[in-house]
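Key idea: predict the complex, not the pieces.
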Amino acid sequence: MPHRTFLAFIWPSLLAMVLFIAIPILSVGYQSLFVEHPQMMTEVESCGPFGCRTERRVDAAAMSELRAESPMGRFNGMGTYANPSHLAFDEVGAAWRSSESFGQFLRLVMNLPFYKALFFTLAYTFIVTPLVIVLGFCIAIAVNTVSARLKGPVIFFSLLPMIVTPLIGALVLFWMIDARGVIGATLQQVFNDPQLSLKASPTLTWVTLFVYGVWHSAPFAFVVFYAGLQTVPQDTLESAMVDGASRWERVRFVTIPYLMPLATFIALMQLMDNFRVFEPIIGFSAEANATSLSYLIYSDLRSGDFPLFGSAAASSMLTIGGVVILLTPVLIRTWREFKRKG
Amino acid sequence: MMKDFLKASVAITALLASAGIASAECGIEKGSVRILSNDFAALHAIATAAETCASDTVTVTKNQTTEHKNIQVPALTTNPASYTVAVIATNSVVPLLTGDLVRPLDDYVAKWGQDLQESQLIRVDGKVMAIAFMANGQHLFYREDILADNGIAVPTSYEEVLAAAKTLRDKGVMQNPLASGYKPGWDLAAEFVNTYLGTGGEFFKEGSAEADINNENGLTALATMKEMSTFMSPDWVTYNSNLMRPIWEAGDIAMQIGWGSVAGSYIAEDSPSPEIAKATKFAAAPTIGGGTIPSAALWWDGFVISKNISDEDAEASFRAMMVGISPATAAANADAAVWLVKGYEATPAAVGVVADMQAGARPYPMVPYMGLLHTALGDNLAEFMQGQESAEQALADVTAAYNTAAKEAGFLD
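Result:
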């Protein structure tokens, strides 16, 4: 295609990408360099139903003057990135100096909110993604062998977990694993332990979240693989059969290599999706045991009387950085294949 | 059947009649009243009463949502503001005051506030900035029947609550007789604030925004909360105020710390388990560490009038809200809240909050940086509660998280 035609074809998409992706990311990045002005405080007497007391208040008039002068707030440079809520350079350094063993160092670092969230996010990404690909592939192979008459309903039911909104799916399961819910109560019976709680134990909460993640995303992998299976060249399969290849050997040496590009595609999508895991944490009320980078952003913006925009912006930029790092190997691989073909 | 029908028709007639009287009483000529409020029974009653002021020239609209706190600042910042009235509580008024988004009400109080009592006026720096209409707070809910059957007196201190729980567990009456809103996040932080207030401690160093909770009082509060949790269902880590009610109604709890604003629904006649509703009683929040103050923060609910609206709308809004929180509304909904309005007499549902107030419980702090400390508490106490770190470490984590947030918000250098 001539470059001119290509450009004419692509420019609306490019424009949309600049408007809706590049500009917002730049503005978030810019925001992350600022913090709120120092608050001008005054002491005033405040009275209510429970008596009077002298309390400190923000001087609203003085503050609005400050904000009119510089609406973005106070320039803080990379200060927000380095503070204890984010990369916490000082705290990590102190932990390194004070700890006697690597284990102790890790424990100290894992107590910092950002690293705690990063650890869960990475664990979730690297446990759920491969399981989704494997499980999705298995379901696709299984469904492909089901008789034509049953295929419709089977496919529909296999897709259900993906059709259910993540938050609703999580809430439904949340109630089922309650100590009084059907799964929770059954487990207590099975293990004969009345104090067993999937919600209270950190380990079990992680397992629950991973299982939920696989349950929710496997249908996506299934549907992609299933579509791919329909295009596997039948003559290659038949010749393999003539050569006496077993069922497993046919899958191993024909189907899997043929579907590899699809696996790359799913891995790419799932890495991105799982790295910003958020809904299950809310749905399972798992904040106590598992926080993710996205949850940190939510928490900065939502809780407390003052949304911490700078902090949320810094977490967002770090998350974007994380996604880029995760995707780099896959992208390099795709680029190499592209060049080889070209 | 016939009786129900009769009851319903009488009720509807009474409602229509009272609505007729109310709209005649409002006397507002014109204006627009737009109410933003939280979503619970007492506030429904108020908004419904205010709506009776609607006429051909007066519009009254409402948005009652638990998300009110997250939209109130942006909604009142626009000019004209999206809402003329914001119904607020001790903590949610602070961002509005900080942002200078509400107007002084002294003139309106002088002109239209005949029904108001002095205690309802929230004065900041001498000016009336909000009107309070109900008090709230957490306190002890207990099952009178279970305690009596086992020879346990109504506990007044946490030590007694824990002893009673132990007795019930040892006798095999209940494995997990306690409940409290210990869900990490806002609820767990609120419980810490309650418990800490009972120790008599202050949250900040005098005259500064520097947090001061990593001390003996903080450790006492945490130790008590930890021990409470050992007598709770293993799922306590997800319990908040709304979750505890069905479990109470199922008869699985003998004592809990709950909000005064939901007490009415626990003893309502239409409760799904009438026997339990009948045996449910309320008392002041327990004291802690040999102290005499109930471990509970007192809260008030009230309303403010937006600054960025026309004077006409502001006056109409104030007058409509006067109808909303009138003694008549309170009398008709006596069970819905602990009203601060004239002529209200405490009902059985109000016993706990009134007992808190009489025993000298302290108000929830109204300083602008309290919300940041509350968030830091909610995010950092769970690990201690689950036995993964020491109380000292948890309080140090809280202080570190608070310091970071307070620096970013401009309260600390």
